[in-house]
Amino acid sequence: MTPEILHLDGLDQNAVWADWIRTIRQAFIDSPQVRYADSEQTWWRDLVGPCCSPPPSLVAFQCARSIMVTAQGFYQCQPLRVESIFIASLAAGGKIVPHADSEAVIGGKWAPNHTANRTYSAVLYLNSEFEGGELDFPGLKRRFQPRRGTLIAWPADHRFVHQVLPVKGGVRISMPVWFEPERSENRGF
Q: Which CATH number covers residue 32?
């Protein structure tokens, strides 16, 4: 049986989550330190990872830790740690092609990719001022219209191939977070 997708709406109605979302948007959305990904419509701001430890924003990390605890409770899984946090923006025309977060098709079969350590993925949406940009899980026939305060989490393997459909207008801003198992050799976050 395939595990469910965790889907929570309205987190921005909670004062703590609303403050986190507001602070993250103010701190990172207009940052000049972005790196471009697959197209001119997409930029990513790396908040956590081997290149920038400790995280530049305790607020983003606190938010990611809360997402982690929520995912652990929902999936009843082994303890996790935050592997990476990004701020992602997709402008009109921007999209993300179908993919799995810990596996890739190699030689016609699913195999671990360069981020095989990831066991769960999540995304928190930081705004609602856009059209399109749905998070789509084509193999599961599940599609989510993200809005500010929406949290979606899922296992990172090939059962949860997902894509972001083209943004039709505005700018879609989110905070993707990836988790890996808590082990003695990767303690820290």
A: 2.60.120.620
pLDDT computed for residue 2 by the predictor:
58
The DSSP result for 12-74, as a single string, is: GGSHHHHHHHHHHHHHHTT-S--EE-SSTTEEEEEEESTTS-S-S-HHHHHHHHHHHHHHHHH
- Most confident residue range from 1-5, 18-22, 26-30, 46-50: 18-22
Let me know: does 78 contact 181? Beta carbons within 8 Å. Answer: yes
* Inter-CA distances, 104 with 10, 89, 142, 162, 163, Å: 33, 24, 21, 12, 14
Please state, in angstroms and as integers, the Cα–Cα distance from residue 56 to each residue in 27, 38, 82, 85, following that order: 10, 24, 14, 11
Q: What's the domain count of the chain?
A: 1
Question: For residue 88, what are the CA distances in angstroms to 25, 100, 139, 143?
Answer: 11, 17, 24, 19
pLDDT at 108 over 70: yes
